[in-house]
Design brief:
eight-stranded parallel β-sheet; about 25% strand; alpha/beta; 10 helices; six-stranded mixed β-sheet
């Protein structure tokens, strides 16, 4: 079906357009044209103002809809997680498995392998741990922190045909192991790490190209050692994700990071948990209760345990509280993560030939409409 969507300011991924129409044919975008140039064979949908943007992309999603991927790594839970995020305009996700038993990791990889070609919102898998520095384990339980061995390597070699992100502590693996992981096509990120500038510089030579949730669970800046944070800001050839719930990172540091990293090298992740689009403010992680209080998810140790936001919240917070221009705030949840993951040739922008994944939100940042591959999933109340 040919569709023409009008009535909203259109953000292409690069710039805003007024009084334009987005043309779609089936699953693909055709073009952005003048509203008076729509041909008769297009079905017109007129939106009630607001902004029409690429669907949001989130490369670190632990859960949603009352489900946590670690707790129930099956198709039913995965579908619920995806639907919970689609409700808020996130049309592509990397489900994330945190440090756990090898058996849980195997179940997660099996589910992704079986479903990645069956659900258009499923990009691949983000493996966060267990190869961490225990000093910066965060909420990851100490009993699951491990070193790479043949059991893990044999499993990783089976992960083919979809993107895999692997967050690890570079000081806890060898260069030979790092090179091998890179040869598998993995995106390797530093996280939960106390690596030095020199260790990170060496790791970057052999495949490390990103940093996971900048500022959190990593070595901080000091006068004589840049630490992981300082290194992430210094190495222009690397990308970094950041959680913009205004609890994980102070707004001034988010703004500083935006100004310091080259354009396109900083992007948002939610690090979201089971509470997304779910009425219950608590859930179980590692057999303990994590509860939401004043927007913060806290475990029994008093540590932050992921977030309760989605990408539309990150965009709003970045724009209203961190002095990030709206065009870049949206790009940091669309085009920039798409480019980092290597899917920017068909996702993250509203360009000819791209998949018609769309998010429509009002000027108060409330999601009004969502499309995945041209299919209208959510419609604003009339």
């Amino acid at each position: 079906m040919k569709q023409a969507i009008t009535g909203a300011k259109i953000f292409s991924g690069n710039e805003f357009f007024d009084h334009k129409a987005l043309l779609i044919d089936g699953e693909k975008i055709i073009d952005i044209v003048n509203e008076n140039s729509i041909q008769d064979n297009f079905k017109i949908q007129k939106l009630n103002g607001g902004i029409l943007s690429p669907g949001f992309i989130d490369l670190q999603v632990n859960g949603g809809g009352g489900k946590l991927f670690n707790n129930s790594p099956d198709k039913k839970s995965l579908d619920e997680i995806i639907k919970a995020h689609q409700h808020f305009g996130t049309t592509s996700i990397m489900p994330t498995v945190i440090s756990d038993s090898l058996n849980v990791l195997k179940r997660c990889t099996s589910t992704i392998t079986n479903e990645v070609n069956n659900n258009k919102s499923l990009l691949g898998l983000h493996i966060e741990g267990p190869f961490f520095n225990v000093k910066y384990r965060g909420v990851h339980q100490k009993q699951y922190i491990n070193t790479i061995n043949n059991d893990y390597l044999n499993l990783f070699e089976t992960l083919q045909g979809f993107p895999v992100m692997l967050t690890l502590a570079p000081e806890c693996i060898s260069i030979r192991q790092l090179k091998h992981l890179k040869s598998l096509g993995f995106k390797i990120l530093a996280g939960h790490t106390d690596a030095s500038y020199d260790q990170l510089e060496e790791a970057i030579k052999y495949g490390l190209d990103g940093f996971t949730h900048l500022f959190n669970a990593m070595g901080q800046i000091s006068a004589r050692e840049p630490g992981v944070v300082g290194s992430a800001l210094c190495f222009d050839n690397t990308s970094a994700s950041i959680i913009v719930d205004l609890h994980h990172v102070h707004p001034s540091l988010i703004e500083m990071s935006y100004n310091q990293k080259p354009q396109g090298k900083l992007f948002f992740v939610s690090d979201s948990m089971a509470t997304i689009n779910h009425g219950e403010p608590s859930f179980e992680l590692y057999d303990e209760v994590v509860s939401e209080s004043n927007g913060r998810l806290i475990n029994s140790e008093g540590k932050l345990a992921g977030s309760s936001i989605t990408q539309i919240d990150a965009i709003k917070n970045a724009y209203l509280s961190c002095n990030i221009p709206l065009n870049d705030a949206i790009a940091m949840a669309t085009r920039y993560p798409a480019n980092y993951l290597g899917v920017g040739s068909y996702l993250g922008s509203l360009e000819s030939g791209y998949r018609a994944d769309l998010a429509h939100f009002d000027l108060d940042f409330n999601i009004q409409n969502v499309w995945v591959a041209g299919k209208h999933l959510k419609q604003e109340a009339s």
